[in-house]
Amino acid sequence: MEAINANAASLKNKANEILGVNPEDAKLTKSFLLVSFVALLLGGLFGLLQGINRAGLLELPSWLNYYQVLTAHGLLLIVVFSGFFMIGYFYSGLSHTLGGLLPKVRKLGWIGYGLSMFGTVLVVIMVLMNEATVLFTFYPPMMAHPIFYFGLVFVVLGIWSCCIGAFIQVADWRKKHKGQHLPILSFFATGAFVLLLGCTLFVAVEVLFLILPWSLGWVDTINVMLARTLFWAFGHTAVNIWYLTAVSAWYVIVPRVIGGTLWNDTLTRVVVIALVIMNITGGFHHQIVDPGISDTIKYMHVFMSLAIGFPSLMTAYALFVVMERAGRRKGGKGALGWLKKLPWGDVRFLAPFIAMLAFAPAGAGGIAQTTFQLNAVVHNTMWVVGHFHLTLGMSVAMTFFGISYWLIPFISGRVLTPAMNKLGVIQTYIWAAAMVLMAFAMHTAGLFGSPRRTSYTTYGDHAAALGWDPYMLLIGFGAVLLTIGVLIQFYAVIHLMFFAPKGQTEFPIAPKEPGDVTGYWTERWGVWVVLLIIVVAMAYVVPIVDMIVNAPPGSPPIRPW
Amino acid sequence: MMDQFKIGLALFIFLAIPPVASFMESVMVIHMHMQMPMLVIAGLLMAPFFQKQFPNFFEKWNENGIPGILLFIIIISYWLLPRTMDEALSLTSVEIFKFISLPFLAGVPLRDSWKKLSDFSKNFVITLFTIVFLGMGFLYIFVPVQLCNNYLIIEQIALGWAFLLTAVGMIVYLLYVAFVDPSEYE
């Protein structure tokens, strides 16, 4: 009887390997993705309220003020939508490329899901009760209700559980496959989870040691500079992890969708390693105008931040090589003829392609912001808001949308019908047009001095402020279009998850180019982590010691709302 | 091999350029944790040249790697003393000694010795420096007085934390060596 059971079990494993989907792992990913897209829906609706408020068309009622909406919009989209999507996507990638999740890893994934969900609910309740209108950066000395911070702690604990699960999965696979290369998608996942663990350590220190004792009233004051610095070590890295997640799809998934091959396997891994080692230290460029950090340190950080531009430029080159190669093999002629051979009608390609395009101006704007003098022009203006609507709102979100059109059918045992594909293409165009419009208006208004994080005001009909109004109307119009995009996307996700016709969908992973041999040295994660620690130490030891030893008296809590 | 020598020599010359040297020496932690290690690295890169030019010398005097690593430890220990850093800033002769001793008496013998040492000796050396760095870290962080005339207490504390983090890095490495068997994975 046992033998038969064992046989049945091994048959099931084989079937999973061939069909590529383990139903229990699929359930885990499905849960993560569902939360992610519900957050997109809610966050998007909050975004609509903000957009039309900034356009001067809607005055929010006293029980739902602009800053409360802004906090919810930021947290739901930057943290919950992106974070849950990233974990769900990479867990399904680990399951698919490493032959199914280990039972204990799946358990850790569920524990992580539960803890993060619990934390998210606490956070959202506090925001909705107007007890935590501190914006998504929760900068001290603004102080929220302690339960808000406890919620954040649970979110981080959940993330750690998922990180540890991923590491166990990878270590186990490597033990069982000596001398083999970690499949490229899992390599990306490993890098992303290493960064996620590294950066959440900073925010954990901030919340546990600085903010919680202060918000509970155990200590009277808080070191504001230190808290901000720890926050940005996390905040900057977090958004770069979402970017790394999108990049993984550009390198691994998109080539398959267009019928091509991977770029160069070793160099792709080098990009991942470079992004992992150099990312956390970029946080300082968010604090270029902060007092209490010496010019020398800020100058050093311009270099440390711009270093990330190098792997990004490698990525830009690589992706066009991949597309050109695939297009030419399909018979594209001439300098640009290969472009015509790409599957423009396939949402799984179109959405990430527009996402990549958006990253060009987004990256250029990022370089401007990282530079000392240019940052002084745009700091805390609408320009910055335009920047992260290009990076997160387009590059990351549109890639995630593109992924959802095959990943959700894949985990749900359904297929993407031509009608849904068409809807996806329409959604992509609406989203792209709306974001381009909105981001352009935000950048321009920012250059003219319109501040970010400010409810609608004409500053007593001041001429300069009135000059922003046309752009603000464009932002409002963009927000309305984006809401339509959000509704279509949410409908598509629910449809693909629960109602689309049953069938098999492929998990698209591009094959290597023939003769592409990977260097084994790329697998030495121990070395990369030690280098990461060294780079972080180089960046943070001097300023943080300075902030602690030469600390000002500290700030008591402030509640401006 | 010649390429490595050229890179090492170029690094050595770059570090010796007065504005570079004076900038790096202006911050205590950069002086001790960037300039000094980079001088050692310059020596490491130049080592193969000397090994090729004087094979008999290295064979005769550094047969099992122990004399070389001892010389390395002595030179590094010397430069861990607060007073030597101070003197390097105020006495030109000591500054010159720094630029000679770290590359040629620490970097070169380290490269020649490291491959000759057993795993036990390698880990012993790393453990030794871990303990020393922990001690130095706590000393610099908690000592209430200024140890170097040329550097403020705040810089001393930053250096202390840099020592502790370096020690943490080495502890991570030692744990990795102790608990992870690469042959299980590779």
From TrEMBL, chain A:
<feature type="transmembrane region" description="Helical">
    <location>
        <begin position="429"/>
        <end position="451"/>
    </location>
</feature>
<feature type="domain" description="Cytochrome oxidase subunit I profile">
    <location>
        <begin position="32"/>
        <end position="500"/>
    </location>
</feature>
<keyword id="KW-0813">Transport</keyword>
<dbReference type="GO" id="GO:0020037">
    <property type="term" value="F:heme binding"/>
</dbReference>
<feature type="transmembrane region" description="Helical">
    <location>
        <begin position="300"/>
        <end position="323"/>
    </location>
</feature>
<keyword id="KW-0812">Transmembrane</keyword>
<keyword id="KW-0249">Electron transport</keyword>
<feature type="transmembrane region" description="Helical">
    <location>
        <begin position="471"/>
        <end position="494"/>
    </location>
</feature>
<dbReference type="InterPro" id="IPR000883">
    <property type="entry name" value="Cyt_C_Oxase_1"/>
</dbReference>
<keyword id="KW-1133">Transmembrane helix</keyword>
<dbReference type="Pfam" id="PF00115">
    <property type="entry name" value="COX1"/>
</dbReference>
<feature type="transmembrane region" description="Helical">
    <location>
        <begin position="110"/>
        <end position="128"/>
    </location>
</feature>
<dbReference type="InterPro" id="IPR036927">
    <property type="entry name" value="Cyt_c_oxase-like_su1_sf"/>
</dbReference>
<feature type="transmembrane region" description="Helical">
    <location>
        <begin position="32"/>
        <end position="52"/>
    </location>
</feature>
<feature type="transmembrane region" description="Helical">
    <location>
        <begin position="72"/>
        <end position="90"/>
    </location>
</feature>
<keyword id="KW-0472">Membrane</keyword>
<feature type="transmembrane region" description="Helical">
    <location>
        <begin position="525"/>
        <end position="545"/>
    </location>
</feature>
<dbReference type="GO" id="GO:0004129">
    <property type="term" value="F:cytochrome-c oxidase activity"/>
</dbReference>
<dbReference type="InterPro" id="IPR023616">
    <property type="entry name" value="Cyt_c_oxase-like_su1_dom"/>
</dbReference>
<feature type="transmembrane region" description="Helical">
    <location>
        <begin position="349"/>
        <end position="368"/>
    </location>
</feature>
<keyword id="KW-0679">Respiratory chain</keyword>
<feature type="transmembrane region" description="Helical">
    <location>
        <begin position="388"/>
        <end position="408"/>
    </location>
</feature>
TrEMBL record, chain B:
<keyword id="KW-0812">Transmembrane</keyword>
<feature type="transmembrane region" description="Helical">
    <location>
        <begin position="124"/>
        <end position="145"/>
    </location>
</feature>
<keyword id="KW-0472">Membrane</keyword>
<protein>
    <submittedName>
        <fullName>Uncharacterized protein</fullName>
    </submittedName>
</protein>
<keyword id="KW-1133">Transmembrane helix</keyword>
<feature type="transmembrane region" description="Helical">
    <location>
        <begin position="62"/>
        <end position="81"/>
    </location>
</feature>
<feature type="transmembrane region" description="Helical">
    <location>
        <begin position="157"/>
        <end position="179"/>
    </location>
</feature>
